[in-house]
């Protein structure tokens, strides 16, 4: 059976872990902000401004999601401390109560572990929405089919997280698959979850488009960047932009395919390219593409990647062997992340969006 000292040590270890989490998650800063929001929401004027009140309620929900579990854990710790004092005062120790306390402490440890995962989202923009750019590499139909497989994989993963999706652009391949796609992902820590997926993804399989059924290697580029339009004074010189309009190659009916509503914007100094075709309105597509462009440029400047900007864009045009982050070897039933050495033999499960095993491992290692 458990001794009083053992239970005290176990409870103290939970308390120390809870304190660390409070530090990483900036508990007191969030608590102060929640108090400010609650005061603001008491004002009648705020409720007349629908957009402002919606933003405040969304932020309130986000803060409570982090603060309430910590508060609940602290209440339980306080309760068990008081209970242990009462047990100590008894001449005959109640072993059954000590056993129940230990079980509850183990439950707290499980809750602490779930909160500890949020420590990995410590980067400045991890909590923001984000964009995913998918670009097929050289290899024709096989590479374009691979790009489409990756698009489906990420869409399934995003749906599993209950994030919101907006497919901004999808350029179909010549006969099969896609040449490129851009998705906007909305949800708490969308960028934090996805940022380590950026890089080259390598596929090895027997090519279904080859009559000889030979083994082929294909590559696709995944580029992830946060939606960081706010808080920047990024000035875009329109003379440095090339704006192209074209007919959408995606689904959407006759109007979409016959009207030049799709927009592609190239920022000439950096080589950054964005595309949008999700609306029937050219004006709306241009507006969304400009938001993407600013987010992308902000992301690059934040990382001080003046030299790497060109490499990122060049990699989209020349996606070949080397620098890949993950290999998907289908005929060997093996997927391996080359950064973390995490492997899976269940190919179909991973392609169906079960990516947490890979994402969590890369986040834990600080990629």
UniProtKB/TrEMBL annotation:
Q: Name one Pfam family in it.
A: RF-1
Enumerate the Gene3D superfamilies for this protein. 3.30.160.20, 3.30.70.1660, Release factor
What's the PTM story here? Answer: Methylated by PrmC. Methylation increases the termination efficiency of RF2.
- Which keywords has UniProt assigned to this entry? Coiled coil, Cytoplasm, Methylation, Protein biosynthesis
- Coiled-coil residue windows: 276-310
Which molecular function term from Gene Ontology is one that the record holds?
Answer: translation release factor activity, codon specific
Presence of keyword Repeat: no
Q: Where is the Peptide chain release factor domain?
A: 82-197
Question: Does the keyword Translocase belong to this entry?
Answer: no
Q: Which GO terms describe its cellular component?
A: cytoplasm
User: Where in or outside the cell?
Assistant: Cytoplasm
Which of the residues bear the PTM N5-methylglutamine? 254
Question: What does this protein's UniProt record list under function?
Answer: Peptide chain release factor 2 directs the termination of translation in response to the peptide chain termination codons UGA and UAA.
Concerning its family, UniProt says:
Belongs to the prokaryotic/mitochondrial release factor family.
Q: Do you know which PANTHER family this protein is assigned to?
A: CLASS I PEPTIDE CHAIN RELEASE FACTOR, PEPTIDE CHAIN RELEASE FACTOR 2
Q: Which protein are we looking at? A: Peptide chain release factor 2
């Amino acid at each position: 059976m458990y001794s009083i000292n053992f239970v005290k040590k176990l409870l103290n270890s939970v308390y120390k872990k809870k304190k660390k989490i409070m530090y990483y998650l900036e508990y007191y800063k969030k608590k102060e902000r929640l108090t400010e929001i609650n005061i603001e929401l008491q004002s009648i004027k705020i409720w007349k401004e629908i957009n402002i009140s919606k933003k405040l309620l969304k932020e309130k929900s986000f803060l409570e999601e982090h603060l309430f579990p910590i508060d609940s854990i602290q209440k339980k710790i306080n309760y068990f401390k008081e209970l242990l004092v009462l047990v100590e005062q008894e001449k005959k120790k109640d072993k059954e109560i000590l056993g129940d306390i230990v079980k509850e402490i183990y439950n707290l440890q499980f809750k602490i572990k779930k909160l500890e995962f949020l420590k990995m989202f410590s980067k400045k923009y991890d909590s923001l929405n984000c964009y995913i750019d998918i670009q097929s590499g050289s290899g024709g139909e096989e590479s374009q089919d691979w790009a489409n497989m990756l698009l489906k994989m990420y869409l399934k993963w995003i749906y599993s997280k209950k994030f919101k999706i907006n497919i901004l652009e999808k350029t179909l391949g010549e006969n099969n698959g896609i040449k490129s796609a851009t998705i906007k992902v909305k949800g708490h820590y969308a960028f934090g979850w996805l940022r380590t997926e950026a890089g080259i993804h390598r596929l090895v399989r027997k090519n279904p488009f080859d009559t000889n059924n030979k083994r082929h290697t294909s590559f696709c580029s995944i580029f992830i960047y946060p939606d960081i339009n706010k808080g920047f004074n990024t000035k875009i010189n329109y003379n440095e932009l090339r704006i192209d309009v074209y007919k959408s190659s995606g689904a959407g009916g006759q109007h979409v395919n016959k009207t030049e509503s799709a927009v592609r914007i190239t920022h000439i100094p950096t080589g950054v390219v964005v595309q949008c075709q999700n609306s029937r309105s050219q004006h709306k597509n241009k507006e969304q593409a400009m938001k993407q462009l600013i987010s992308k440029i902000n992301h690059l400047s934040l990382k001080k990647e003046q030299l790497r900007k060109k490499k990122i864009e060049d990699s989209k045009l020349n996606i070949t062997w080397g620098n890949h982050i993950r290999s998907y070897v289908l005929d060997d039933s093996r997927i391996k992340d080359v950064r973390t050495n995490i492997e899976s033999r269940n190919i179909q499960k991973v392609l169906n969006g079960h990516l947490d095993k890979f994402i969590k491992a890369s986040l834990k290692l600080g990629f």
